[in-house]
Amino acid sequence: METTQSSSSWRDAYKGMSSDNIKGLVLALSSSFFIGASFIVKKKGLKKAGASGVRAVRNEMGICDSEEEGNGKWDLGICICRSSCGGVGGYSYLYEPLWWVGMITMIVGEIANFAAYAFAPAILVTPLGALSIIISAVLAHIILREKLHIFGILGCALCVVGSTTIVLHAPQERGIDSVTEVWDLAMEPAFLFYAALVVTAALVLVFHFIPLYGQTHIMVYIGVCSLVGSLSVMSVKALGIALKLTLSGTNQLIYPQTWAFTLVVVFCVITQMNYLNKALDTFNTAVVSPIYYTMFTSLTILASVIMFKDWDRQSPTQVITEMCGFVTILSGTFLLHKTKDMADGSSSSTRMHKYSEEDGFGPEGIPLRRQESMRSP
Question: What's the sign of the alpha-carbon dihedral 23, 252, 186, 201?
Fold first, then answer.
């Protein structure tokens, strides 16, 4: 009798995931797989291009010689430079089909990630971005023969445990019938105050702190990316809902709010990617990735809680459990990145600036999708 009552109370406490949450979960997991795999495929393409032609970087040290801002960019820890990084031929990887397969795979992953926000709350979708690290680490171990340290395996396990915890206790997606409802949520005083605070902080960082400390303090660039990224995810979610409703037969393209959210997405993503590239161009990828993931995900969850009131539909126990899951994912992420160089027998992870890397491929820390891509969305 007691067993029956206990089972019944458990079912009452956990009613299962809604169909929308399940769709969002499947899309988010698919996105993690495609984006995680894309980095490995692109790396294989870069290595193949380097073996048959000119590598993406030409100088002996494997790093950009130019001090001119914007003269090169970094992709998976590899310098892709213009004129001053070794003359002609620095783009031979563009003629490598395998590299393009990696790019297409990443685009497919980003589309799946975009669609996931239309079905599931950001508090469920965003933290699952850490799973792309596991995919990349495992595939790098299998395909690229990169040794995975025992503590790296523990980091992967922590990411899985944390992700599972969040999935099992994530709030149900809020029922929305029109993009105007999302606009009304965005116009509430609490979220307007948050948005104003974010914009103000980002402008202060851009115009005051970046000129002074951008080249020496990693938190300056990452702060701009994370702040703007939290707004971009909210706008992407609104745009995703509008497209979902439109495809289901309720045209949302006639509303000006849809196009307003679109403009916000474009502006925020361009800003986010600009300063993220600056961070990656200045500091070690293995340092940028976990810090950016922590700040971006934390601010995105905060923005979602304020705008969509995710926690209003949950008990304190569920909220605390979700936070424990998130902290577990963070621990796994930092552990995996921290031990990446240990597996390579290098101590370069203790140095923050990217120019401490010893070769053109850097420490090959596996980047998170939210930063090299539109994972924010």
Answer: positive
- Burial level of 254, CB count in 10 A (0-12/13-18/19+)? exposed
Q: What is the DSSP letter of 173?
A: P
Average pLDDT per 10 consecutive residues for the chain, totaling 377 residues = 47 64 92 90 80 51 37 37 39 79 91 92 90 85 82 89 91 87 95 96 95 91 94 94 92 94 94 88 78 90 92 88 93 82 48 47 40 44
Q: Decide if 328 is inside a domain.
A: yes
Q: Does 240 map to a domain?
A: yes
The pair of structure tokens assigned to 212 is 């002074």
Q: Helix or strand or coil: residue 79?
A: strand
Return the number of other C-beta atoms located less than 10 Å from residue 149's C-beta: 18
Strand-pairing partners, residue 74, are: 79
In a domain, 109, yes or no: yes
Q: Does any domain span residue 14?
A: no
Nearest alpha carbon to residue 340 among 137, 143, 162, 41: 137
Count of structural domains, the chain: 1
